[in-house]
Design goal:
The protein has about 120 residues and is an alpha/beta fold. Helix content is about 35%, strand content about 20%. A 5-stranded parallel sheet has the order 2-1-3-4-5, with helices on both faces. Helix 2 packs parallel to helix 3. The N terminus is likely disordered.
Length: about 120
Amino acid sequence: MCQGAAARSVLLVDDDDDVRASLASALVEAGYAVVEANHGEAALRALAEMSSPPCLVLLDLAMPVMTGAEFLAALETSGRASQPVVIISATDRPRDVAAARRLLRKPVSIDAVLAVTKELCG
């Protein structure tokens, strides 16, 4: 489990503005700092700009510009393979989920997201 200020920051990556907004709102209300990105490339930039790694990345797979699978591959090549990632996807059996801690299927409940975030971030 993460400790300190980084323990409470979450990187939320989803191209659906409504999904991202509702999850971000619930996470902030639960006391987490949320950094949002609408595709994998923006998420990589956000990670590079963060002063410390987030305790968790919540990641959609189907996104424009850079997919979630491409983001996971980039994490691995950048030496951040240990970064905890939870995939949130509508896909039944997404490829490339081996690098993720867990898979939550869309439509996902906010309670499920908060529970996994609490488990992994404290």
